[in-house]
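chain below, 264 aa
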Amino acid sequence: MPFLNFNGTICPEDALLIAAGNPAFRRGEGLIETMRWHRDAVPLLRLHLQRLNRSLPFLGLGGFALEQLEEEIMKTAVACGRPQAAMIRAQFFPGPAPAPLQFLIECRTADGPPPQGLSLGIATQVQKNPDALSALKTTSRLAYSFARREAALRNLDDVLLTNFHGRVVESTVCNVFAIRNGHIYTPPLSEGCIAGVMRAYLLEQVQLGGMPFTEKPLEAGEVLEADEVFLSNALRGVLPVRKLNSRVYASALTLQIAEAICLW
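prediction:
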């Protein structure tokens, strides 16, 4: 039976742990960190922790220490058989005194190899608009779930969300990048996208394959006219996009980037 870690205690997966009045359950008042577990470590844990400690003050909660997060992740992985590769999903949410910060950590089977190229569309029924919370990865996932259902109905791998300006923001689970004329572009957080951990790692590289990274708003037409488009997240790395609507892209430069930053 799979196990999970609730506030430092290993519990069976089917244990009833969350009270009906829990803020994360009742109001979506919580945060998520979805991490890659690979050979007894989380490759981008420093960046995950930085994002978490920037986000927790929005819930009125204190931060996490690196050593504590490492210990709790390891404890969870060991309870689940210490797999070579897995997904670590951690939720953080308010709780009653004397432990106002609570957490729930799961260790799940990692996704298989990414497809050779994703087929995308543009979401038609939900938008992602910039506000004080738009960069946070919260437990409130309804808009993303709704957009993913649209993708499934259209037989697509994912859809890109736009903001009220009609500009491309992100996909339902990834940040988005466009390669054009030797530059790599990605929307700034002010457009409404989540502050992705792999996005932050890529921006730290300054340039890859001789191409500089630039944050700029992306009109849908600019993405459609790009030489290549790719998505990124901390679980699956860099994912080439094969098709957006009827536009078909190359992926040679994207594959070079994916190889250059491969962390597992």
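Residues 3-109 form a domain with the D-amino Acid Aminotransferase; Chain A, domain 1 fold (CATH 3.30.470.10). The chain has a mean pLDDT of 93.
thats it, cya
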